[in-house]
Write a structure and sequence with these properties.
heterodimer, A: eight-stranded mixed sheet, four-stranded antiparallel sheet, 12 strands, B: MetI-like fold, 2 domains, 12 helices, flat, binds adenosine-5'-diphosphate, binds iron/sulfur cluster, binds magnesium ion
């Protein structure tokens, strides 16, 4: 099998594996209180230049999936028990750690929600960015610092030259996230995972960070996995969406499809809970109930205790992925009803 | 930071003055005749008593005496013993030895303690971790002189790895065993402190970032985790130096070392006020200086701390 190093989706010849493909991934946390099944058969794929938004309530396994991709799971207690994660066709999970490490930063990179705690407080931001070049490219400290400065300018840090030796706590939240981004894209990775990159920021700063991510992605033709629980930001940036619930993907769809015809009751609930200008003053519709404990996921469809469409079969049979449309599927026995309901 | 250091240095002056005063009062205000038993079996002659009374201003009120002493002190005169020896000579002989001993202890404490702490903290619950926990608990609960005699017997007499006592001039090689004894308690604390500090930091978000950057594990641990974990430990080690010097008395006794401990012990027994004050004040000074160094070091290690 020959792998192409570069190329936008259009240039990929037929039969070429996706840039990154997660297949039937299972992750569990073995803790003293019991085994938490955090990820239960997640599959998604992404190509160069594409943005996949991963949505879902807090605790649905979005971050754990990303950590498994990066190979930064907390092990123990976290273990991948099943599945594969293929980068350009090669299963990362089968690689020895020494080889896999070289993929991190070089091909796969990740930024986190809390940039302050994610940066080391005792090293200057320049040092931390330069480290990428020193470790992966064997550059000298001073060459690394030059590269760090270039990157800080690239992500629009004002007065970067004066600030390259400053420490993380001396920057604002938005600037810190820019530094995280600079560090992540330092080696021009093919895949960037952004785990709720704007959740901790002010609204105006959120938009700037999203714009920066989007711009960098376009320039560098990166595959972007954007984890969020905010359906609002998704519409502008994502090409496709995966909705997670209790460690599974309950619906996958191109972005226009998800708003036009959601095919899963959970997605429908999420959409109904987006604040809208025309509904100002009205109470938001929030999905009733709480997500199940990952140690005791109910049999059948995990969403059934909270689902308005639920019937007996939902408590007995785990719904498979029903194809709804082009690149659109839903794990709901009654997806047709859901689609019809929104048409009305 | 320079201004901060200066301010701290100035703050030491009242502390030092206060401590000399306290020690002075304690030494000279002790009840009892300062000449009892000083001249062997016979009572001291009147001439001797008159001479010593004049030398130490014993007829003046305590406060006047103190200021006269202080005046001499400020001119660099530490005074004399009853027998006429210069206190500065005694101090100059004893301090370097104890300083060396404390340095050896500090080095052992830092190297062994940090090493054990890192290895234990990386694999909490492992064999080595359990070994460290049990052995440090052992060291912490045993009195120093027990550890001292045990090591002296085992390593010195039984197996002959180290000399049993320290020869004149106290060469470094001779001080390893006493240093180990002196530093043992702190070593146990350093190991435990480093262990818990590392175990906590290794779970920090920035460690996850370091791994996600594709750094090799030894760099993740050795640079990112250890650097942060050192902050509280270095602080402890620095502050401990003064304690080591003051606490050397038992160790010096066991290994027959002519240091500050022996000097202060003898001086208290012979009621050599001038010597006691000089030795103790110097210990206070070392303590204060080390504390300042630790505070400045703290700001160097942790950029989030800034003094002005
Ligand atoms: N380090 C951990 N130890 C134990 N359980 C964990 C750990 N990290 C995640 N989990 C479990 O995985 C679940 C999913 O977490 P996560 O993927 O972070 O959710 P989110 O979708 O909000 O990102 C959590 O609810 C928790 O039960
Ligand atoms: S399968 Fe049943 S319970 Fe699950 S989402 Fe569909 S209707 Fe609701
Ligand atoms: Mg998360």
């Amino acid at each position: 099998m020959t792998l192409t190093e570069t190329g936008s989706p259009a240039a990929v010849p037929a039969g070429t594996p996706p840039l990154l493909e997660v297949d039937n991934l299972h992750v569990e946390f073995r803790t003293r209180e019991g085994v938490a099944k955090a990820v239960n058969g997640v599959s998604y794929a992404i190509n160069a230049g594409e943005t996949l938004a991963v949505l879902g309530e807090s605790g649905s396994g979005k971050s754990v999936t990303a950590q498994a991709i990066m190979g930064i799971l907390d092990t123990p207690p976290g273990f991948v028990t099943k599945g594969s994660i293929r980068y350009q066709g090669d299963d990362l999970l089968q690689m020895p750690e020494g080889v896999r490490r070289t993929y991190r930063g070089e091909h796969l990179a990740m930024i986190f929600q809390d940039a302050l705690s994610s940066l080391n407080p005792v090293f200057s931001v320049g040092y931390q960015i330069a480290e990428m070049f020193r470790v992966h490219r064997g550059m000298s400290r001073s060459d690394g610092m030059k590269k760090a400065l270039e990157l800080m300018e690239l992500v629009n840090i004002p007065a970067a030259r004066e600030r390259v030796k400053d420490y993380p706590h001396q920057f604002s939240g938005g600037m810190r996230q820019r530094i995280m981004i600079a560090m992540a894209i330092a080696l021009d990775p093919e895949v960037l995972i952004a785990d709720e990159p704007t959740t901790a920021l002010d609204v105006t700063v959120q938009a700037q960070i999203m714009a920066l991510l989007k711009e960098l992605q376009r320039e560098r033709d990166m595959g972007l996995i954007l984890i969020t629980h905010d359906l609002g930001v998704v519409a502008d940036v994502a090409d496709k969406i995966a909705v997670m619930y209790a460690g599974r993907i309950v619906e996958r769809a191109p972005v226009y499809d998800i708003y036009a015809r959601p095919a899963h009751p959970y997605t429908e609930g999420l959409l109904a809970s987006i604040p809208r200008v025309d509904m100002k003053g009205q109470e938001l519709f929030a999905i009733k109930g709480i997500p199940p404990s990952l140690m005791r996921i109910p049999p059948g469809c995990p969403f059934n205790p909270r689902c308005g469409y639920a019937r007996d079969i939902c408590r007995e049979q785990d719904p498979p992925n029903y194809p709804v449309g082009d690149a659109h599927d839903s794990a709901c026995h009654f997806w047709e009803e859901v689609v019809d309901g929104t048409r009305r | 930071m320079g201004r901060y250091a200066l301010r701290r240095l100035l703050q030491m002056i009242p502390v030092l003055l206060g401590s000399t005063f306290l020690i002075y009062v304690m030494v000279w205000a002790l009840p009892g005749d300062p000449f009892a038993g000083r001249c062997g079996q016979r009572p001291c002659t009147d001439a001797y008593i008159a001479a010593q009374t004049a030398k130490f201003n014993l007829d003046d009120p305590l406060i006047v005496r103190y200021f006269k002493y202080l005046g001499n002190l400020l001119q660099g005169d530490l005074g004399q013993t009853f027998a006429g020896q210069n206190v500065s000579d005694l101090v100059a002989r004893a301090y370097p030895t104890t300083l060396k001993l404390a340095l050896v202890a500090l080095t052992i404490e830092a190297v062994v303690g940090l090493g054990a702490g890192v290895l234990a903290g990386l694999r909490r619950g492992g064999y080595f971790d359990n070994f460290v926990l049990v052995s440090t608990l052992f060291v912490i609960s045993l009195p120093v002189f027990v550890i001292g005699f045990m090591l002296q017997y085992g390593l010195g007499i039984r197996w002959g790895v180290f000399p049993v006592t320290v020869s004149a001039g106290a060469p470094f090689a001779d001080l390893i065993l006493p240093g180990l004894v002196l530093g043992s308690l702190s070593l146990a604390y350093v190991a435990r402190l480093m262990r818990s500090s590392l175990a906590e930091n290794i779970r920090a978000d920035y460690i996850r970032t370091a791994i996600a950057k594709g750094l090799p594990r030894r760099r993740v641990v050795g640079v990112h985790a250890v650097r942060n974990s050192l902050i509280p430990v270095i602080t402890f080690i620095g502050a401990d130096f003064g304690t080591l010097m003051g606490g050397a008395i038992i160790t010096e006794g066991i290994f027959n070392i002519n240091g500050v401990g022996g000097l202060v012990y003898r001086s208290i027994r012979l009621r050599e006020g001038a010597t006691v004050i000089a030795v103790v004040t110097l210990l206070v000074l070392v303590f204060l200086l080390m504390n300042l160094i630790v505070d400045l070091l703290y700001a160097v290690l942790d950029p989030r701390i800034r003094y002005e």
